[in-house]
Amino acid sequence: MSLNYPLVVDLATRYAPPPGRLLDFGCGTADVAALAGDRGYDAYGVDTFLGVGASSENLAIATARIGSRAVAITPNEPMPFDSGFFDVVVSNQVFEHVADLGNVCHEIARVTRPGGILLALMPTSEVLWEDHLKMPWVHRAPAGSDRQRRLMKAFRRLGFGTAPNVDADEWVSNAVCDLQEHVFHRPVSEYVSAFSKNFRLIAEDEPAWARYRIRRHRLLKHGSFLFESSFLDGLIRPAVRRAAGAVLVLERTDGV
Question: What residues make up the domain containing 44?
Fold first, then answer.
């Protein structure tokens, strides 16, 4: 299980304690929603269940975990919930796959009650490691450019990348296509701007991401107290932004 799953639920309990209705937007196999249910939330999950892998199997797993609260949605269509239905919406590593960010933010705002919380974790253009391809730097080159292809081929020769048995040229062509069509590396400022139409940014909690992992690391946990001071936040935040991405906490404002 990804360490992000319990972290997301821990953050939700901090900013919007249970009981309450929680939506995991882009739930996959509903790991987060199931954990949230165990912590006292009335937890739902939505996903398109499209893309890489056996998507119908993911829906079956999600349904086994949270029943009918696992809901398949259609891109660019309203979610099947009343306005203001949820107290908290969480999204883990999903927004970087959303092409029409404005429309999705508007729909999430619609189903979140005024004063409710949106918790969003996602890689941004600041990260140094492209985790979908398991390579450094390649997403920072112009999309589809010769430079990007050369970087991919070079890192592939060094042993980076997924699917090691696939021909290198074929893999690079597929990887370039994936980054152009399915992964959108935006700066944090672009996310904040899109959210700000219906939400107010209340925290950039990358330090929580770091401390959660340090406390659970086999070696670092013994010195975790050294990282607890808030005076270190100014150093931890940019480090996490480059290592993993952003952790944004936003509050729903009044209005549509």
Answer: 4-125+185-252
